[in-house]
Specification:
By secondary structure, this protein is of the alpha/beta class. The chain is about 45% helix and about 20% strand. It is built from nine helices and 13 strands. It has helices at about 1-50, 80-90, 110-125, 170-180, 210-215, 235-240, 245-255, 255-270, 295-310; strands at about 70-75, 95-105, 130-135, 155-160, 165, 185-190, 190-200, 205-210, 220-225, 225-230, 275, 280, 320. The strands form three sheets. The protein has an eight-stranded mixed sheet, with helices on both faces. Strands 8-7-9 form a three-stranded antiparallel sheet. A two-stranded antiparallel sheet has the order 5-12. A hairpin with a 5-residue loop joins strand 7 (about 190-200) and strand 8.
């Protein structure tokens, strides 16, 4: 009798082990099936992204918002191959009206360069639409030149961009539509932060936060002008009302003109900027942000600007605009 009970117990334990094994196997199979299904669904979108930014340039024409379009103001400096590459890309963006190249080199642009860029624009034009190309020639080499007032600008929207960064036209058009909903704010792709610290003498001291600070906290208070939309009126304000001492400081230190524009807009609006999620393609070499002491120099700029403005105008926020048509995770 005892042996029979022992065999029954062993049989029951064996059955439970088999049941657990079968259940675990079923869960693993279900998990694998979900992973495979997700991969198959996401693969087309991922594949198009991995093919490069040139395949992402055409937005859905049916979703374009009406309006006058926007003007690109592109900062450049002796990087003609990058300039040609950037112009060739952005020329195909459907709501682009004109491209203004901020030229601060000692010699004017060569005739061959101008002819080549105009040829690119003509070849990229769609139907009767022709993007206008202009060189804004400056006698002085200063970072302030990128924010000089453009008298004959036809559009209210300005897309400020460096010559070494590329965004898909679909992302640019989406950011433009976001800007149309808040035309007094800066709307851009590259967020940065600031925060208040207490110094040893209990005076206020502000620190600059780069991308990792934004990533860690989810908070930002600036979008850099290397890739941002703003209203053309801010070019006039920067040119005519930005304190000369600050513009001299920027020229001397060759830094922080983007922070100055963020201060200018925030001071006028008392509102935060808008960060738009977008894939950035760096086509140039690393810039000044990769140099040692960059964060300290940017922090010095912030505190210098606070002293000049008489207050801290930057407003922090956690809002991010995401194009749900092309994003799985918002």
């Amino acid at each position: 009798m005892r042996g029979s009970l022992l065999m029954n117990r062993r049989g029951l334990q064996r059955f439970r082990q088999l049941a657990v094994t079968a259940t675990g196997s079923a869960k693993i199979k279900i998990l694998l099936f979900c992973c495979i299904a997700f991969t198959l669904l996401a693969l087309p979108g991922w594949a198009s992204k991995f093919m490069g930014w040139s395949n992402l340039s055409a937005p859905d024409d049916r979703l374009q918002a009406p309006g006058k379009g926007y003007a690109i103001v592109m900062n450049t400096w002796k990087r003609y191959d990058l300039l040609k590459q950037s112009i060739a890309h952005y020329a195909s963006c459907s709501e682009l009206d004109s491209i203004h190249i901020v030229w601060s080199e000692p010699d004017p642009p060569s005739e061959s360069l101008v002819a080549h860029l105009n040829h690119i624009l003509q070849s990229k034009s769609r139907g009767p639409r022709q993007v206008e190309l202009k060189f804004d020639i400056n006698k002085e080499d200063s970072l302030n030149n990128r924010f000089k007032e453009i008298k004959d600008l036809k559009t209210d929207a300005v897309f400020s961009i460096d010559d070494d960064v590329i965004f898909p036209c679909s992302s640019v058009e989406f950011a433009f539509h976001v800007w149309q909903s808040a035309p007094d704010n800066m709307v851009g792709f590259v967020p940065r932060a600031h925060w208040l610290e207490q110094s040893h003498d209990n005076n206020k001291y502000y620190s600059y936060g780069g991308w990792w600070s934004v990533w860690w906290t989810g908070t930002y208070s600036m979008v850099l002008s290397k890739a941002a939309f703003f209203h053309k009126k801010y070019l006039r304000l920067y040119t005519n009302e930005m304190p000369a001492s600050l513009k001299d400081y920027i020229t001397k230190n060759r830094n922080c003109e983007d922070i100055a524009m963020s201060f200018l807009v925030a001071n006028a609006t008392d509102a935060p900027p808008v960060w738009v999620k977008g894939k950035i393609f760096e086509i140039g070499s690393t810039g000044i942000s990769s140099l040692g002491g960059h964060k300290d120099r940017r922090s010095q700029c912030i505190n210098r600007f606070v002293a000049e403005f008489g207050r801290m105008p930057l407003v922090s926020t956690t809002v991010k605009a995401v194009d749900s048509r092309s994003s799985w995770f918002w």
